[in-house]
Design goal:
The complex is a heteropentamer.
Chain A lengths: L1 E4 L3 H11 L1 E7 L5 E5 L24 E10 L2 E6 L7 E6 L1 H14 L6 H9 E6 L24 E5 L3 E6 L2 H9 L5 E2 L3 H16 L15 H4 L4 H6 L7 H5 L6 E7 L3 E8 L19 H19 L11 H5 L6 H8 L3
Parallel strand pairs in A: 2-6, 6-7, 7-8
Antiparallel strand pairs in A: 1-9, 1-10, 2-3, 4-5, 4-12, 8-9, 11-12
Chain B lengths: L2 H11 L11 H5 L10 H10 L2 H5 L3 H4 L5 H5 L6 H14 L11 H4 L6 H11 L2
Chain D lengths: L12 E6 L3 H10 L8 E6 L7 H9 L4 E6 L10 H18 L7 E5 L5 H18 L14
Parallel strand pairs in D: 1-2, 1-3, 3-4
Classes of the chains: A alpha+beta, B mainly alpha, C alpha/beta, D alpha/beta, E alpha/beta.
Pfam family, one (chain D): FlpD
Protein name (chain D): Coenzyme F420-reducing hydrogenase delta subunit
InterPro entries (chain D): MvhD/FlpD
Chain lengths: ~350, ~130, ~675, ~150, ~325
């Protein structure tokens, strides 16, 4: 398998970033990790995951859609779409990698979202297998193997080397572009690391979490469950869970008045917000209970119903650690589950 | 007028002499009035004018009993006695004008005088 | 869709000389929503206004922008013109391109550019203007005067004279106030009673004036033109309608050792009493603290001697409620308590008295029948020391920071009267400054010095010590002679500072009027609206607003009456429609707005809302009384949710202006 | 406002003036023909206390380089107490802007009475100069509103 | 302590004094505790928890809960009682419908600080003599208790309960805290340094509104930032200006009302020290208008709805700072 010694990773990053923009998870001053554009000397974070997910690269929090120029009483519509530059995201975890599959099911089906597609076409996702999962991890519940991440190219580490394997054509192109820096090597050490990780995965507190009682056909079981009241009672209605979530895909479109016209942009929305999907006639979900239910029903029932049983959650655990009042999808599943 | 001295007196007393409305109640209330060359209300006014040296050289400042009657009764909270004390301090601090040298001490020893007083005076009046 | 007309005025050459008015009209014509944009020589002229009126009709305009002089000049002119053409007057906005553009700039290019921007801001604002209709609220044709001293009496007489009913609420058993206690008045030296009592009688006999003596205001609700006031008529245990004021009961009452407040406690009265001979109403009152019948049921003498059966030991406090259009506050003043001034020995010697006590000592109806005698031994004083500014102009906790204003003059009066009546008495006046601004005031003071030989000494008394021989040792400074004086006086008279009556502050709270830190009522404007409070419909009369002598008090009393009459004359009040309003759906009921409202225009109501889940919820929300609100907007910023907004200057309007200017 | 290489930087100043004192003071400086720069654009408000911190931020967002708030002198407020609230609100707001590193000379409160036409003009001249020295507002601008 | 609280709550439920109890409910792990309403002895018995991680200020829930029928019991730490007082003062809660039991305050633990040490796979956290024994899937770890306490507890302003119906344990005192140290440090920087500091911090903001929604002073029926008519509404910052504006206006709206409970910084998923903005206002208010502690009582006039004739002018901002 192609590999590179861990202490040479800087040269690999340098080589990639020469050709295209490279983003890697790096530690911030406050200790948390976030994706940053690679600059010489930047260190790959050892944190399990970033606070914000990798979906930002394809579906940024705000994005300009169109501009209207106004002069006096004349209005001119300006298409501001531009072809994206090629870029690489390095070090995406298996959970986030799966989230792109989910987002693709929303944005790449007809009508295709040209903004999303543009970025998706130009971005290469290089994933990184996990070795030190956290208590909040439950990707296994959604059939994700963190030791064998998806993405254009997967990378493993055994502590001494990074191993590379292309999953797609784009991934192969990526590997080819840096092949001069890679060498072939045996995977005996790596196999041990993977086996160890798999063993740890089995011991995680949420290892037994199962989705078998959820899915597209469970609408009637759960929609009117009397648990929703109790579960949503403490919800503050903030958007933390949705904004750190790698699969949340809802957005709102707004107009901003600039000095000489209007800029129409979209920005993430949250089903936890009181004006979520508010329309001219009013709001279909008037209480926090309904909005809270929407988020979980969407991930556990509605999304699989429309996507061949695929769930809208990847078990990254971000909402578990970031919710101000520690209410999350795991607690909801456990409370709700009817066996 | 010596600006520095005035500053020093104002600062060490913490008194705002501009609050004085010249009512003279301090002088009306002062038990040492007749002993003084400059009376409490004049004191305040002289400090305002910056005429501190005259005060420092006057015996009046040592005639003040610091009974604080003027402080208590001043309708404007000017606190004349604090100004008096500040001028005394200014006099004490004036270099070259110290009232004692170690050589003076033996002559001052007096069996009626508590030693404490001598030590205190010595500390206070020597450089 | 908005249809806005823009009208650019040349103002002769005032604007046109530095602003290219044609270019401004042209540029603004391209703004969204503008359907007509014209310029004209004099827009405020008859023909200019016609231009606007015709355009409104012809183009069916929904908004008008006039680029002209300051709105302070002609906003009303153009609003009237718009109204005449059938457009709501509040759909007119003015862009000030004269005072704030053409007159201050010289370069035509930049001045024109700025004029366009100012015009654009006005267009942006007028897009968001809403038609406003000035509300009206009826005026109750009755006034309330709180306080029955000379200020209250004068105000009541003037209002009654204009034909309106007026009620006086006086907390004491009789009206008359402080002036009734005064012996003579400066600078004419006429007898206070001789000029006051006829007014008291006039007030009592005027059909329009209703005196509620021995009464207090306990609650005030409502707003200008429409106050509802609760008055407590305290039990006096005598039926006012029956009592003839014959005074027999007061002669027979066995409880004769009650300190007489009318005489400043210098002598005694009975438990049932009439404060003084000319009291109005002349009705007896029983003092329940001393009456043995009320205290332990043993006596009943007054009831037995009363030939008309007016005594009613079972009488209770009564509350009456009345509606008023205007309220005049005339709560007056009191001398401050002197307990904290130990140095003047006020509490130690009966011969140290306040000036008001001296008034009683010298008054023919006073404790000594008008002969000045020392309270201690009833001997004639030969040396009297007056001390000025006792508690006035003080920067400490004991006194008041202000000048009490009246003391210089009454002390000159006292000194003069004493010297006149008792030429063998020496009089000393210790002063800090002698303040005599007033008609014939300084002449009066000079007479005291020159003609009556009163010793005026610049300096303050430091200490007064009662001696065993009955004299008062006065230690003082003479600042001009630079010496300390020691005088053995027979009497010392202290010119105590005056302060607002204690009832003023709770009253101010009820009236939602403002007070300064000294508890004087604050006038609406210190120069231009001196007799109105900032709360509409509340007027200020006399010393409750600040220290005043009698002539000033009477002048202000009549002025307050004039203001009140001006209000009462109206059948209804047109309200300024540019007032705040609260969006109840967004209001939190947090009370922030109420706390910054200077007018008390905001109240809270519990309102029922339909909740999303079809339940109902009762929530506390703010409600603005448009008749009281003056439209300052303080509440709009205090409101964190933005529920409070201001008509005519709404958040969105101001932000639209900002946007247009910064474009 | 834009900076042009060969043109001096001309700041945009937004002045909020209370109707009763400062707006009248501005009128007076006009009546007396006392010049101040065209950079200053006045917005009339009933009282200085009507000015919401949001308006001030809005002005900066939209491209103002300086914002000045004028009201009646303390004690003279037409509504008796409005400017006292203004004073506290603006002191705190300006302190916060300073805390965030926004140049303090971009904001000011000045009390101008209806009689102080000369003071109004002098204040505006002075303030415009002070803002000119700071250069364009970059720390509190919205790039979307920057003029091309 | 937990036992005492549960027993007292059960008593009050049983004798009908209250119908519901607001407290904390245990979670999946040692630290993920959720505020909850308990209605029965059984629920209390099985789920009620009070330990080193029960840091959430539950006073805000009283806005909703005290409007319902029946009295509600709430356990409040000293800092939480300030919040309740402020809510009472602003008529946002019905105090008569609340039964407050004052309980001892922190210091409480910050799981983020434990995780920042690289400790992961956390199964349990035990406090043994102020050393934390942390059991993880990767073995046991230890760290000093003092290094893991919440920032808000490290600068605790008061151990005193300002309102309660009964107390469990002793009442404490108002403390001399060091809470303004960081504000002062920033004040002493140059404007450029402060600007850079705040840009770095505020650019992290994802506008999740957690700070606002957790804040007991932010109980508006509709926030200006959610109201399209307010002129400042936005859902996400499209420009750094909007990041600044949101936090300036938010801090301004709670100026003189913020009780400095520290929840905003605790819940921020991006670790932005938002409390510094609030503390800046508190510090300014204390220095310029006299010491004022929001929530200390329910009657005093708030600094921004009050004034004195001789307040300092706004130019004081120019006069005092460093450049």
């Amino acid at each position: 398998m192609l590999r590179i010694s861990i202490d040479k990773i800087d040269s690999l990053f340098a080589a990639i970033s020469e050709k295209q923009a490279l983003y890697i998870p790096a530690d911030r001053a406050d200790g948390a990790a976030e994706y940053k554009k690679y600059e010489a000397g930047m260190k790959l974070s050892e944190k399990l995951n970033t606070v914000r997910s990798a979906k930002d690269f394809f579906f940024p929090q705000t994005e300009n859609l169109v501009e209207f120029k106004m002069e006096g009483k004349k209005i001119e519509v300006k298409d501001i779409r531009q072809e994206s530059e090629d870029f690489v995201i390095f070090g995406v975890r298996a959970c986030d990698a799966r989230s792109f599959t989910i987002l693709d099911k929303v944005y790449l089906v007809e009508p295709v979202d040209s903004f999303y597609k543009n970025r998706r076409d130009h971005g290469t996702v290089v994933t990184m297998a996990c070795t030190r999962p956290s208590e909040t991890c439950f990707c296994q519940a959604f059939g994700i193997d963190p030791t064998a991440p998806e993405g254009d190219c997967a990378v493993w580490s055994d502590g001494s080397y990074y191993y590379f394997k292309a999953n797609t054509e784009k991934g192969q192109a990526f590997v080819d572009s840096v092949s001069s820096l890679l060498e072939d090597g045996d995977t005996a050490e790596l196999d041990k690391t993977v086996a160890k990780t798999k063993e740890i995965m089995g011991r995680l507190p949420l290892a037994k979490l199962s989705t078998e009682n959820f899915g597209g056909d469970k609408l009637n079981e759960y929609f009117n469950s009397d648990k929703w009241g109790e579960l949503s009672e403490s919800c503050l209605g903030c958007g933390t869970c949705t904004f750190v979530c790698p699969t949340c895909q809802c957005y709102d479109i707004k107009d901003f008045k600039t000095s000489d016209g209007i800029r129409r942009f979209r920005c993430w929305d949250s089903c936890m917000y009181s004006d979520f999907t508010k329309m001219a006639h009013g709001n279909p979900r008037l209480t926090q209970l309904e909005r809270f239910r929407q988020r979980f029903m969407h991930k556990l029932v509605y999304f699989p119903a429309n996507n061949n049983g695929e769930f809208g959650c990847v078990g990254c655990g971000r909402c578990l650690s970031k919710c101000p009042i520690s209410m999350n999808i795991v607690k909801v599943m456990k409370a709700l589950e009817v066996k | 007028m010596n600006k520095n001295l005035k500053e020093q007196v104002l600062r060490s007393s913490g008194v705002n002499v501009l609050k004085c409305m010249r009512c003279g109640k301090c002088s009306g209330t002062c038990p040492s009035y007749d002993e003084m060359e400059y009376h409490p209300h004049q004191f305040v006014y002289m400090v305002e004018k910056g005429d501190i040296e005259t005060l420092m050289n006057s015996k009046s400042i040592y005639k003040c009993l610091t009974c604080f009657a003027c402080v208590d009764r001043c309708p404007r909270n000017v606190e004349p006695a604090k100004v008096v004390e500040a001028v005394r301090l200014a006099a004490v601090r004036k270099q070259g004008n110290n009232h004692m040298t170690p050589a003076d001490l033996p002559d001052m020893l007096d069996e009626d005088l508590p030693q404490q007083a001598i030590v205190t005076a010595f500390r206070k009046y020597i450089k | 869709m908005q249809r806005i007309g823009v009208f650019v005025c040349h103002c002769g050459t005032n604007i046109a000389a530095t602003v290219d008015v044609k270019a401004v009209a042209e540029a603004l014509g391209h703004e969204p929503g503008v359907v007509v944009s014209q310029d004209y020589q004099y827009m405020c002229s008859e023909s200019g206004q016609n231009l606007v009126k015709n355009a409104i009709k012809e183009h069916n305009l929904t908004g008008v922008v006039i680029c002209s002089c300051s709105p302070r000049m002609h906003e009303n002119t153009f609003r009237k013109a718009a109204a005449a053409a059938g457009l709501n007057p509040y759909l007119v906005e003015i862009a000030n391109i004269r005072e704030q553009c053409s007159w201050i700039h010289k370069d035509i290019a930049t001045a024109t550019e700025k004029a366009v921007i100012l015009g654009r801001a006005a267009v942006a604002k007028v897009h968001l203007n809403a038609p406003l209709i000035a509300g009206e609220s009826p005026v109750a044709k009755r006034a309330l005067v709180i306080g029955g001293g000379i200020a209250g009496i004068q105000t009541a007489l003037d209002i009654a004279e204009a034909g309106f009913d007026v009620d006086i609420v006086e907390k004491n058993p009789t009206i008359g106030g402080k002036m009734a206690q005064i012996d003579k008045t400066f600078p004419t030296l006429d007898c206070a009673a001789c000029i006051l009592t006829p007014k008291m009688v006039e007030a009592s006999q005027n059909e329009k004036i209703h005196i509620h003596s021995f009464s207090e205001v306990t609650d005030v609700k409502g707003f200008v033109g429409n106050f509802t006031v609760t008055i407590k008529k305290k039990a006096r245990f005598v039926d006012e309608t029956k009592c003839t004021g014959c005074g027999l009961c007061t002669e027979k009452c066995p409880m004769k050792k009650v300190p007489n407040e009318f005489n400043m406690g210098l002598d005694n009265r009975t438990a049932i009493y009439i404060p003084f001979a000319q009291a109005v109403p002349k009705v007896a009152t029983i003092d329940p603290n001393y009456c043995m019948m009320l205290k332990n049921g043993k006596c009943g003498v007054c009831s037995k001697v009363c030939s008309v059966g007016a005594i009613d030991y079972k009488q209770e406090d009564r509350f009456i409620e009345e509606k008023y259009g205007a309220i005049v506050v005339a709560t007056g003043f009191n001398p401050i308590k002197l307990d904290k001034y130990d140095e003047f020995a006020y509490n130690q010697s009966p011969d140290v008295v306040t000036s008001l006590e001296l008034e009683r000592l010298m008054n023919a109806a006073g404790p000594n029948g008008g002969t000045l005698l020392r309270p201690s031994d009833k001997t004639h004083p030969h040396k009297i020391v007056f001390v000025q500014c006792v508690g006035s102009r003080c920067d400490d906790s004991k006194g008041k920071p202000y000048c009490s204003k009246i003391c210089c003059m009454y002390t000159a009066k006292h000194a003069m009267l004493i010297r006149e009546k008792y030429p063998d008495t020496e009089v000393y006046v210790f002063y800090i400054d002698v303040r005599t601004p007033g008609k014939n005031f300084d002449e009066f003071y000079r007479r005291a010095v020159e003609q009556y030989n009163v010793h005026y000494i610049k300096g303050m008394v430091g200490k007064v010590t009662p001696q065993s021989n009955g004299k008062l040792h006065v230690q003082a400074s003479d600042l001009l002679a630079n010496e300390q004086l020691h005088i053995d006086a027979d009497m010392v008279v202290l010119a105590a500072a005056i302060e607002p009556d204690k009832t003023a502050r709770p009253l101010a709270t009820m009236l939602t009027t403002q007070m300064d830190t000294n508890d004087f009522f604050t006038e609406a404007h210190p120069k231009l609206r001196p007799v109105e409070s900032a709360t509409a419909g509340i007027f200020l009369s006399g010393a409750c607003q600040g220290p005043k002598d009698i002539p000033e008090t009477v002048a202000q009393a009549s002025a307050a009456a004039a203001k009140a009459i001006g209000l009462l004359c109206k059948n209804s009040i047109t309200c300024n429609p540019c007032v705040a309003h609260s969006d109840e759906l967004m209001c939190n009921g947090c009370s922030s707005c109420e706390k910054v409202c200077p007018y008390g225009a905001i109240t809270y109501i519990d309102k029922e809302f339909r909740m999303p889940d079809r339940t109902t919820k009762v929530r506390r929300v703010a409600s603005v009384n448009p008749a009281v609100c003056q439209g300052c907007g303080a509440c709009t910023v205090a409101c964190p949710s933005g529920a409070m907004d201001l008509n005519g200057f709404s958040n969105s309007q101001i932000m639209a202006e900002v946007d247009a200017i910064c474009k | 406002m834009q900076v042009n290489e060969n043109k001096e930087f001309e700041p945009l100043i937004v002045a909020f003036c209370c109707n009763w004192c400062s707006y009248a003071g501005a009128d007076l400086s006009g009546t007396n023909r006392l010049n101040y720069p065209t950079n200053v654009k006045i917005i009339r408000v009933p009282c200085s206390c009507r000015v919401n911190p949001m308006f001030i931020l809005r002005a900066f967002q939209r491209g103002a380089d300086g914002v000045i708030l004028c009201g009646c002198h303390p004690g003279d407020c037409h509504y008796t107490s409005g400017n006292y609230f203004t004073r506290r609100r603006m002191t705190l707001l300006f302190s916060m802007l300073d805390f965030l590193g926004i140049e303090r000379d971009r904001t000011r409160v000045e009390w101008v009475s209806a009689a102080e036409g000369a003071k109004f003009a002098a204040t505006m001249n002075e303030f415009t100069e002070a803002v000119k020295k700071l250069g364009p507002n970059r720390r509190l601008e919205d790039l979307r509103c920057r003029k091309q | 302590m937990q036992e005492t609280m549960i027993n007292r709550a059960k008593q009050l439920l049983a004798d009908g004094t209250v119908t519901r109890v607001i407290g904390w409910k245990r979670g999946e792990f040692a630290y993920d505790i959720t505020p909850a309403v308990f209605e029965s002895a059984e629920e209390l018995e099985s789920d009620f928890v009070f330990d080193d991680f029960t840091s959430a200020n539950v006073s805000k829930y009283l806005v909703k809960e005290s409007a319902k029928e029946g009295k509600v019991l709430v356990f409040l730490k000293p800092c939480d009682t300030y919040s309740l007082n402020q809510l009472t003062k602003e008529h946002r809660v019905n105090r008569d419908n609340i039964y407050v039991i004052g309980i001892p305050g922190g210091p409480k633990l910050d799981i983020e600080k434990i995780k920042a040490k690289g400790i992961t796979g956390i199964l349990s956290v035990r406090n043994e003599n102020y050393t934390l024994k942390i059991e993880t899937i990767y073995g046991e770890e230890t760290m000093p208790f003092s290094e893991a306490i919440l920032d808000k507890c490290a600068s605790c302003k008061s151990k005193k309960h300002v309102t309660y119906d009964e107390l469990i344990g002793e009442d404490g005192d108002v403390l001399d805290s060091n809470r303004f140290d960081m504000v002062e440090k920033l004040e002493n920087m140059t404007a450029q340094e402060r600007y850079d500091f705040w840009r770095e911090q505020l650019s992290k903001c994802i506008r999740c509104n957690a700070c606002r929604n957790v804040c007991p002073a932010c109980t508006c029926e509709k926030c200006v930032f959610d109201n399209p008519n307010s002129g400042v509404e936005n859902k996400a910052a499209s420009d750094s200006f909007e990041e600044n504006m949101f936090h300036i206006i938010r801090a301004f709206h709670v100026a003189g009302r913020c009780t400095d409970c520290g929840e905003c910084s605790r819940v921020c998923p991006q670790n932005i020290p938002l409390h510094l903005l609030n503390r800046k206002f508190i510090k300014d208010i204390n220095e310029l208008y006299g010491a004022y502690q929001a929530g200390e009582d329910t009657t005093s006039k708030a600094p921004l709805t009050n004034y004195t004739f001789d307040d300092c002018e706004a130019s004081i901002v120019h006069e005092r700072g460093v450049e």
